Amino acid sequence: MGLSDNPYVTAENGHGDLGNIAGGLAIITGGASGIGFALAEASIRRGLHPVLVDIQDDNLTAATGKLEAAANEAGVSVFGWKTDVSSLDSVEALKGAIRERYPNTPVSLLACNAGVGSGGGVLTGSNRDWEFCFAVNVMGVIHCIRTFVPDMLEQGAPGSVTATASQDGLCAGQNVYGVTKQACIALMEGLHQELQGRLTSHVLCPQVTATNIVGSERYRPERFGGPSQLSPAYQTFMDRFKSEGVPPSEVADNVFNAMQTGTFYIMSEAEQDPGYIRLQVETRMNSILNGERPFRPRSPWHTEIFSPRR
Ligand SMILES: NC(=O)c1ccc[n+]([C@@H]2O[C@H](COP(=O)([O-])OP(=O)(O)OC[C@H]3O[C@@H](n4cnc5c(N)ncnc54)[C@H](O)[C@@H]3O)[C@@H](O)[C@H]2O)c1
Predict the structure, then answer these.
(1) Which residues span the domain enclosing 197?
(2) What is the 3-state secondary structure (H, E, C) of the chain?
(3) Could you tell me if residue 302 is inside a domain?
(4) Is 195 among the domain residues?
(5) What is the pTM of this model?
(6) From ligand 1's centre to the CA of 310, what distance in Å?
(7) Residue 32: pLDDT band by 50, 70, 90 thresholds?
(8) How far, in Å, is the centroid of ligand 1 from the Cα of 256?
(9) What total of structural domains would you count in the chain?
(10) What is the position in ligand 1's atom list of the atom closest to the CA of 59?
(11) Ligand 1 in reach of 217 Cβ (< 6 A)
(12) Does the residue 290 lie in any domain?
């Protein structure tokens, strides 16, 4: 089906009216915390049934509980399912569970959002660090897309696919995490072209957001080396993220706005740091086009948050 034949999606990659997707499922990986949880709250406000998918069981139970009242009021249901997106078997089990629970409900939103903020540098990261970060931040997205998108194309109802990358995927590549986020953007660009407008697709590139992302080592699976406690310095760093970062609810609203208007690259900027994501993109592209060496510019806000000052 070409763009012009598609009854649901405009060539601009947006739904126009999000009422078109109300009543469907919003499958949200990493849904128990941070941006994923905010996406679940925003889904309820748009009449979608959130399916929270997360590796952290306790957080999942707490998160689904927190959403119950709003869901009841909106006339939608909440479903949570423990899944490790880095395991294809686990994602396929998720699909089975969703089919059993919602045999006839279309998937209106697949939000491949789960991610880990681990890794270290290109040289300082261990092989396990590389494997862990790629398994969740890249293979996790691929597993979900390959498991759910073929059915979304067949369901005869409109839908959207998003993945959460980062501003780190847009600037000159740096460290293990950044490389995974560059890969995430590239895979969404590839998917977008293959979809040819049959579903809308978007890639979220947030700045520092007030979440638990800095604490991912606390639940690293055993096969990637197992969990470890955060050092006091890292705990301070996480607290700083949570007090100074962009509220996750703003980031989630940016995603739904993009689904409406058709924005592919969702540059979710901090109001304290206007223009910084754009500057990173321009700097990278100028380096490529002008034969210069790669360089990531800093902003005062970004430098302050990442400095080991406190
Ligand atoms: N917070 C930021 O500053 C920021 C900036 C740019 C991008 N991001 C990206 O946003 C996404 C969401 O993270 P967040 O900031 O909300 O952090 P978060 O830690 O609060 O939430 C991430 C969630 O993903 C879950 N998760 C991790 N590994 C998983 C796995 N293997 N299977 C299933 N679930 C898993 C975690 O349990 C957690 O609940 C991530 O992809 C992250 O890389 C975050």
Answers:
(1) 3-273
(2) CCHHHCCCCCCCCCCCCHHHHCCCEEEEECCCCHHHHHHHHHHHHCCCEEEEEECCHHHHHHHHHHHHHHHHHHCCCCEEEECCCCCHHHHHHHHHHHHHHCCCCCEEEEEECCCCCCCCCCCCCCHHHHHHHHHHHHHHHHHHHHHHHHHHHHCCCCCEEEEECCHHHCCCCCHHHHHHHHHHHHHHHHHHHHHCCCCEEEEEEECCECCCHHHHHHHCCHHHCCCCCCCHHHHHHHHHHHHHCECHHHHHHHHHHHHHHCCCEEEECCCCCCCHHHHHHHHHHHHHHHCCCCCCCCCHHHHHHHCCCC
(3) no
(4) yes
(5) 0.96
(6) 24
(7) very high
(8) 18
(9) 1
(10) 39
(11) no
(12) no
Q: By alpha-carbon position, which residue is closest to atom 38 of ligand 1?
A: 30
Residue-wise pLDDT tens digits, 212-267? 999 999 999 999 999 999 889 888 888 888 999 999 999 999 999 999 999 999 99
State in Å: Cα 207 to ligand 1 middle.
13
The reply to whether ligand 1 has any atom less than 6 angstroms from the CB of 56 is yes
Kindly report, residue by residue over 138-158, the tens digit of the pLDDT. 999 999 999 999 999 999 999
Task: Give me the pLDDT at residue 240, please.
Answer: 87
Ligand 1 pocket, 119 CB below 6 A?
no
35, 83, 276: residue to mutate for ligand 1 pocket, most atoms within 8 A of CB: 35
- With respect to residue 110, please indicate whether it lies within any of the assigned structural domains: yes
